Amino acid sequence: MTIIEAEKFGADKLKKVDITSAILETEVLLSAILNQSKELILANPNLKITKAQEKKYKSLIKRREKFEPVAYLIGKKEFYGLTFKVNKNVLIPRPETELLVDEVINFVTETKKQKNKKTKINIIDIGTGSGAIAIALKTHLPQAKIIATDNSKAALKVAQINAELNKTEIQFIYSDLISKIKDKIDIIAANLPYLPSEEKDSKNIFSLALKYEPKPALFAGQYGLDEYEKLFRQIKNLKIKPQVIVCEIGPTYINKTKKLVKENFPNWRLKIKKDLCGKNRLLIIKKPG
Ligand SMILES: C[S@@+](CC[C@H](N)C(=O)[O-])C[C@H]1O[C@@H](n2cnc3c(N)ncnc32)[C@H](O)[C@@H]1O
User: Which part of the chain is the Methyltransferase small domain (predicted)?
Assistant: First the structure.
């Protein structure tokens, strides 16, 4: 089988199950199997692949036809310009989560400008999964101390590997949200599970792919707010409160989300930011003063 034949074979199969980016995906899979850049693959359509490569490719196409995410098939995902190892124990980092990283970096930069001082800032990434947020932050804020928690030991293992791959030093802690944290925290970043439980049974193409990701990374009760409710209670009990809390949220129950914030942080300033699709995606909760 040549590269062009393999592409046609894969694209036909994937189009049949309504995968719109079928051609692009076949290129990504071939590039991973041949361990070559996509450019090289595209430049050599008549190159023959070996029987072993063909077998592997066909097995990946078969898995993709059942909507297993490409990132799991190739074992990696790009996020914030960095490469992360991913497996079934961690959520695949999403492009919209880059907004959260941007927001934290902007906050640190602005605070430094205003206060014009060099104090070491402590940032915590809660529910770190693959470590994507923590590692992206450390890469861009090398002076900050970054702590990352998760209540999945399997996820923390992946995050630790990713920290090493990206040459960043992060303190990983196995913890229910921030319950094990002893340090003073300046900034809280969290992308906790936020899908409402009703989405578990949805049969759309996105939900079909979700079944491959760890459930505790996705769903959080009837309104998708259970973990944030618990987190806000834990923050309220901290002696020294953080300057800012930045959370990624689901857009479905936005009024309930706002109410939850107001109940827990009545005097704090709440700003909601939309993602590139125009959906409410980020909560930025700032301490008064
Ligand atoms: C939506 S995933 C986000 C993963 C990663 N931060 C990202 O943005 O790609 C949520 C993560 O929170 C973790 N998690 C869920 N409940 C938690 C809890 N109570 N304490 C700590 N981590 C929790 C899950 O194991 C999962 O890794």
Answer: 118-198
Residues 156 and 270 in one domain: yes
Tell me the pLDDT band of 223, cut-offs 50, 70 and 90.
Answer: very high
pTM over 0.85: yes
- Domain residues for the domain of 93 are 79-286
Q: Residue of the nearest CA to atom 27 in ligand 1? A: 129
Among candidate residues 262, 238, 211, 268, the one with its CA nearest the CA of residue 126: 238
244: which 2 tokens? 């800012």
* Spacing, Cα 124 to ligand 1 middle (Å): 13
- Flag whether 71 is in a domain: no
Which of 259, 168, 214 has the alpha carbon at shortest distance from 69?
214
Q: Is 172 found in the same domain as 89?
A: yes
Q: Which two tokens stand for residue 110?
A: 């602005």
The pLDDT of residue 117 is 64
**Of 11, 33, 66, which residue constitutes the final position of a domain?**
66
**Contact 131 CB / ligand 1 (< 6 Å):** no
CB of 257 closer than 6 angstroms to any ligand 1 atom: no
